[in-house]
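Journal club side-thread
Mid-discussion, someone asked how the predicted structure for our own chain would compare to the paper's figures. Pasting it here so we can look after the session.
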Amino acid sequence: MKETAKQRYEKLQQNRQHYLDRARECSELTIPTLIPDSGFESSSEIYTPFQSVGARGVNNLASKLLLLLLPPNSPFFRLSLSGKTKEELEQNPELQSEIERSLGKIEREIHKKIENLALRVSVFEALKHLIVSGNVLTYLPKKGNMRVYGITQYVFRRDEEGNLLEAIIKESISPVALDEETLQVIGKYPDYKEDEDCEIYTHIYRLPDGKYYVCQEVMGHKIPSSIGTYPKDNMPYQALRMVRVDGEDYGRGRVEEFIGDLRSLNGLQQALVEGASVASKVIFLVSPSSTTKPQTLSKAGNGAIIQGRPEDVGVVQVGKTADFSTAAQMSQSIEKRILEAFLVMNVRNAERVTAEEVRLTQLELEQSLGGLFSLLTVEFLVPYLNRTLLILQRSNQIPKLPKDVVRPKIVAGINSLGRGQDNEALTRFMATIAQTLGPEAMMKFINPTEAVSRLAAAQGIDVLNLIKTPQQMEQDKQMMMQQQAQQELVKQTGQIAGTPLMDPTKNPELADQATAVAQGVMDAASPQPPPEEE
């Protein structure tokens, strides 16, 4: 491309301006420091909203999304067999169990590596940008933590299908943090000053063959070591969106959808705060014809006795109690709508609020954001997992997995909500049968093994070596029958010997004798092999 990265950035930022202005307004009503105004410095003043509902909602929704996308203490993916290999292994359960056990070990190893990267801190920051501005760009290097760029730091273009065409990142970096090669490049130009930050542009664009070209420029010149290409499934840069709008390069944020309620709530809270401040001011009025002097009244201490008449002194009252009550009720109604939109659960104010009602309310709130979970699953979790697996395989931290045999499957995000719905439907179905037809119908019509397996799958639990197989249950049944038969022989032997039936725990010697006699009876009753001919 003939244009430099700086020139291209200045050209593309014109299309970004509308989304940037909208994002700054959303940030002003929620978390003002997230997307500050242009020219912001550490000493600049920051606008303080008159309500904290917006900030509370953003932080709460970001936390919920973080827990659903990256659940704690469990991988957000599963390594499963696919294709003909899976069909062939179904005929060999022992080998299939061994392979699945090995894949589970690899899953835990990958999850451990991911946890060591401290990914949650960066993802939480990225989610807040997504909720407020609707856009964020992440960079996952081979080594180190994930970098997060807000909408003020980059521009980009997408194709009609939403795939990334071009992106340019602008960073201001101190020369102390630059490597020696970059210092040699910028040291040749007269515009370089050692005591000032320099601007570095990272240019990314798609090539005709589908790969992405990446390079960094400083003062209009490329840094040789930064030039490279990446395939689509190993792209370290990901431009994420919260709400997808067809035909638009940038996404929309969750806050923008409720910007009207946030404006109204902020205005009402401002009026209530200022009105309460005026109403709390105490002013005494003294009649001009009164013998009581204002100086005497102001200097009088608590409990003092002065001369005067009560009717000569009055207090100024605002008299806006009814108006304040109307504004407060409207403010509470708007606040409730905003909190529900950001998954802040308000439990019904009543005496009998069961835990089941609280759980169902929480599940309903989470299901209302199914579209957001699905978009983040496709645009964030899948590319991130592919990138992480490739890095770990190339560094020999995990064995290489054949793509046509083993495929990773995302089990977090929208899939976790789907499992929650399956669990809820299955539990409600079984409870309905038990209540309407009785426990006998449950034993008659429901297969216990299949019911246990489906409940475990709905809750995302790995059933390998946890639930007994039909072969194991058959072995347990045969063992129990043998024990019952042995106990019956012991009873019969005791009756034949003319001894009363006694508890073996109370008379262990008699129990041992009866067992020996029973064993002799069983040996005598068992068929004997024919004698060998001499």
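Post-session note: The CA atoms of residues 206 and 212 lie 4 Å apart.
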